Amino acid sequence: MADRYQQLKDLIDSFEQDFQKFYDKQNKAAGVRVRKHMQELRQLAQDIRGEVQDMKSSWDSQG
User: Is residue 61 part of a domain?
Assistant: First the structure.
């Protein structure tokens, strides 16, 4: 659990600079990168959701 949580935090922390450039300085190129980061976040979230579902299913079958 801690590994996935840390991976999620690290990913979000890596976005900060581009978010600031886009929202504070209105840098259009940073906006493209923000969208890319959001896609990466979406993919990681989907992977975690799948893992959670698999773990729940395995717990149900065990007992």
Answer: no
